[in-house]
Amino acid sequence: MRKANKPLRAMGYVALVALTFALATPLALGYGSTDENLWSTGTDGTAWTTRYSGCWKSTAGPAGLAPCAVQEKKQEKKPDKVVELNFNLNQYVIPDSIADLSQVAEMDEYIDQLKATPDRERILIVGHTSADGSDAYNLDLGQKRADAVRNYFIDQGYPEEYLAPAESKGEYELLPGVDPYSVAQRRVEFHKTKL
């Protein structure tokens, strides 16, 4: 009986030692817990930060250093949306297909402002649809809406060279939190872009 226990005890010790090394190795290699007392600084006079570039949260530490500031990642800037038209279901003719005719007056006013400004701005016109219909149908309908609005700009005297080619997103960029079948989704947006 004692001989059987010796190998079991030996295996228990080996398992304990192996477990200890397994748990200690990640810490020795610099991995593991993000304990707030683990800190580093790149150069003299800089703020103390964790090894993951977060702010060091401990109240104890060196004095006279600048407060920790984590730089926010800059997000890619999207073109500014300036105006929007909403269309009736499956329609794309201006002004007859616009759900709210006051939006046509807003578009006319916007075009007049663009023409009166000496600094020309490039305008991107993007057509969208609701979730009614197939993907292919909606991409085509969104393109027809965007083309109709682009042609309207040109008819109103805005120089064609300052209009980007019209685009369609179909139903691929539905407004979040809005009924996917609503008139709000059936829209054409105008965006300012760089020349």
What does this structure look like?
- The chain has helices spanning 2-28, 102-116, 135-155; strands at 80-86, 122-128, 167-170, 187-193.
- It has a four-stranded mixed β-sheet, with helices on one face.
- By secondary structure, it is an alpha+beta fold.
- It is built from three helices and four strands; from the N terminus they run αβαβαββ.
- The protein is elongated, with a radius of gyration of 31 Å.
- The N and C termini lie far apart (89 Å).
- The relative contact order is 0.13.
- It has a domain at 80-193: 60s Ribosomal Protein L30, Chain: A (2-Layer Sandwich).
In short:
The protein is α+β, with helices and mostly antiparallel strands and 195 residues long. 32% of the residues lie in helices and 13% in strands. It has helices spanning 2-28, 102-116, 135-155; strands at 80-86, 122-128, 167-170, 187-193.
Strand-helix topology:
Layout: H1 2-28, E1 80-86, H2 102-116, E2 122-128, H3 135-155, E3 167-170, E4 187-193
Parallel strand pairs: 2-3
Antiparallel strand pairs: 1-4, 2-4
Helix percentage? 25-40%
Radius of gyration, Cα only, in angstroms?
31 Å
Number of strands: 4
Strand content: 5-15%
User: Mean pLDDT, nearest integer?
Assistant: 77
Uncertain regions spanning at least 5 consecutive residues: 29-41
Task: Output the structural class.
Answer: alpha+beta
- Shape estimate: elongated
Order of helices and strands: HEHEHEE
Largest sheet descriptor: 4 strands, mixed
| Highest-level CATH class of the domain at 80-193 | Alpha Beta
The name of the CATH superfamily of the domain at 80-193 reads: OmpA-like domain
Number of helices: 3
Task: Give the terminus-to-terminus CA distance.
Answer: 89 Å
- Per CATH, the architecture of the domain at 80-193 is 2-Layer Sandwich
| Sequence of strands across the biggest β-sheet | 1-4-2-3
CATH topology annotation of the domain at 80-193: 60s Ribosomal Protein L30, Chain: A
